[in-house]
Amino acid sequence: MPEFLKLIPPHKAVSDFLAAMPEIEPGISSIKTQEAEGRVVAQLFHAPHPLPPFSRSSVDGYAVRAKDTFGASSSLPAYLTITGEVEMGKQTDLQLEQGQAIIVHTGGMIPSGANAVVMLEDTQTIREGEIEIHKAAADGENILHKGEDVAEGEELLNPGTVIRPQEIGGLMAYGYTQVKVYDNPTVGILSSGDEVVPPEIEPSPGQVRDINSYTLSAMLRQHGAEPRIYGVVPDSFSALKKAVDQAFSENDMTLITAGSSVSARDITADVINTLGKPGVLIHGLALRPGKPTILALAEGKPIIGLPGNPVSAIVSSGLCVLPILRKLRGIKTEIYEPSVRAVLSQNVPSVSGREDYLPVRLETGSERTTAVPVFGRSNLIYTLVRADGLIRIPAAVTGLTGGTKVDVYLF
Amino acid sequence: MPEFLKLIPPHKAVSDFLAAMPEIEPGISSIKTQEAEGRVVAQLFHAPHPLPPFSRSSVDGYAVRAKDTFGASSSLPAYLTITGEVEMGKQTDLQLEQGQAIIVHTGGMIPSGANAVVMLEDTQTIREGEIEIHKAAADGENILHKGEDVAEGEELLNPGTVIRPQEIGGLMAYGYTQVKVYDNPTVGILSSGDEVVPPEIEPSPGQVRDINSYTLSAMLRQHGAEPRIYGVVPDSFSALKKAVDQAFSENDMTLITAGSSVSARDITADVINTLGKPGVLIHGLALRPGKPTILALAEGKPIIGLPGNPVSAIVSSGLCVLPILRKLRGIKTEIYEPSVRAVLSQNVPSVSGREDYLPVRLETGSERTTAVPVFGRSNLIYTLVRADGLIRIPAAVTGLTGGTKVDVYLF
């Protein structure tokens, strides 16, 4: 496979890369449904019975035959005889006949012979055992019919579905207290750089602490990966190769935040190309910050070279690593990226032909939310600490003018 | 304190309730920074030193005196003598004099006497030790100055800040490998209802499985609470009181999904009022689904009565429980609710004076994203399984017309 064109737009790079990736078969584990939030379903569920399993009342009132209430109003009520009460949580053997009403509570089983429920507030007790109906009921009114939510045999959940609170509820409704889910992919993270030291070390003059291993690890964990930090590696081919070989063999994906110099980046690409075929597919994105990103595949496993600057590493990961991670997780559902609508506070410049991501702070006013650019170079981590999200400046434009409505993608 | 007006708008109910809540002092624990993602900072950090701690090059190139490059261009280059190279990760003792250039890599320390860096690509080597400069450098160009990100003594993080990947990076940049965070609030969850059985039990005819305990638990855990499930309680005052007393005494907040009948809801309110003052503050919201919501306070701790219908319970929790949880967590930062912009596929009716939340499914087209209503009664959990998010129909309108642009709040 040839190396793709250099400096391609990030979204195209990612879709090309995802297409080049083989289909993934993640491992499968059975876990407790009640702890499955955020995991990915690995089995197909069919409904073993209808839901609700019996017809239930959706209000407090009287089960009736709808035709017995035909034309009823408060001035011309219908009169019915109360013949019983449905007990909550019990099967009812009561049988409703013409001219009768049976007391039923919300969630109670509809007795045989009834086809509607009149709400309590639309009735009046005349004497013990007899009521007036002040409102006609339509056939089926205030009844949740058996199978109205799910029919027997219907597909409940498909493999590749991300489990949200409602999927947990849906499984519990059928008593599925265990669920098979895909294993979270493991991601090895390396930071290279002769000037980089682990955070617990006091840096000597000229050294800086490793930030990227930890920001990326947190981001990956948020998105369903199991990150593993391999530490800081010097910018030499042999040292980097040894560390990358290990991380690559032990994980489903490998991230390398490259040393920031051009030579260090070249070493990273060279090391990646020793791992297997096809190797580096994309080297450089039409993106700022995040241009020096490498997307590579070896033995079907992704290896991503990220810029060493912390802000670039975060932006590039958000655009490239997270979609790849979704594929590794076995997620089949569409992804939507919600944003906050805001008004840009000032003009911001941009270079045409390159997608720019600009950190912004949000300010809530009485009339509108304003997005205030947090200018700062991509080396500066506190630029992002001070920001609420990013705005995207498309490649086709040369900046945005103040007052423009923008979509702010929160971190 | 008087019971607030009945059926008030949900946002007003929540803001009134938050104002009535006492200030919270959550417990504080020291945890590893690298595991602190999503937790809330409980200490004030000041920068012990500037960041970056020394002036660094942001490119690969030559450290120079800017005035030595004045007017330089490819047709009229400036000529400089290379007198050394800054080693990465080391303090440099090199001193730059007039007419000299020193090789520096990205992230390398700027040598004394230099005030700009010329990028490698704007230079050409003429002979060993001498280069042409093809572009004039401005004072400070391509230098990340000492303290440019953070000045010494500046506030880094405030108590009440939610920790995102970048906050972890910012702490690691200073070697703060431990961070004090607020303890996650514990939330006791009870489900009441004579017809409700735990999910592991095969329901008899007339019974249904408990869903709410598990959907709410998942939702709470997603949002930084420690949920504790107390199980299913019958709809009697004494049984409910016993269970609620225990959950209330053992937790920072208590949620009760009330039995669905009117009498069961009244029992819930009566039980809550036995816990302490002021008791029930809000009973009923101008909201659908979610109207029969109770917001109560006793001994400064919130007790929330939620509707028994699964969809109502989720909607009401999203609007009421989550903001209260944020306060219990000690979060001080503003909350923004991102949404996906979509076009409504069809007319939807609504009643004026009541805020409606409608589940929708998103469909991505080539031109636009469409929000397709998933109609279903609020008792039906699979309505939400089939939906991507909710749209809000404001109280002031009587429905929305197809083609309207809507904000979809993803679950």
CATH architecture of the largest domain in chain A: 3-Layer(aba) Sandwich
Enumerate the strands of the largest sheet of chain A in spatial order, edge to edge or round the barrel. Answer: 7-4-6-5-9-8
- Residue windows where pLDDT falls under 50 for at least 5 positions of chain A: 1-5
Biggest beta-sheet profile of chain A: 6 strands, mixed
Task: Give me the count of strands of chain A.
Answer: 26
Computed over alpha carbons, the radius of gyration of chain A is 31 Å
Quaternary organisation: homodimer
- Average pLDDT taken over every residue of chain A: 94
Q: Which range does the strand content of chain A fall in?
A: 25-35%
Helix content of chain A: 10-25%
Count of folded domains of chain A: 4
What does this entry look like structurally?
The structure is a homodimer of 411-residue chains. The first copy, chain A, has 411 residues and is an alpha/beta fold. Chain A folds into 4 domains: 10-27 and 184-329, MoaB/Mog-like domain (Molybdenum Cofactor Biosythetic Enzyme, Chain A); 28-51 and 152-182, Molybdopterin biosynthesis moea protein, domain 2, CATH 3.90.105; 56-144, Molybdopterin biosynthesis moea protein, domain 3 (Molybdopterin biosynthesis moeA protein, domain 3, Beta Complex); 340-410, MoeA, C-terminal, domain IV (Beta-clip, Beta Barrel), CATH 2.40.340.10. Chain A is 20% helix and 30% strand. Chain A is built from 7 helices and 26 strands. Chain A has helices at residues 10-20, 165-173, 212-222, 237-250, 262-273, 310-329, 381-385; strands at residues 28-32, 45-46, 56-57, 61-64, 78-85, 100-104, 116-119, 123-127, 130-133, 143-144, 155-157, 178-182, 186-192, 196-197, 208-209, 226-233, 253-257, 278-283, 287-288, 294-298, 301-306, 340-344, 355-364, 369-373, 389-393, 405-410. Chain A has a 6-stranded mixed beta sheet, with no helix packed on it. A 6-stranded mixed beta sheet of chain A has the order 16-13-17-21-20-18, sandwiched between helices. In chain A, helix 1 (10-20) packs parallel to helix 6, helix 3 (212-222) runs parallel beside helix 6 and helix 4 packs across helix 5. Chain A starts with 9 loop residues before the first helix and ends with a strand. Chains A and B meet through helix 2, strand 14, strand 15, helix 3 and helix 5 of A and helix 2, strand 14, strand 15, helix 3 and helix 7 of B.
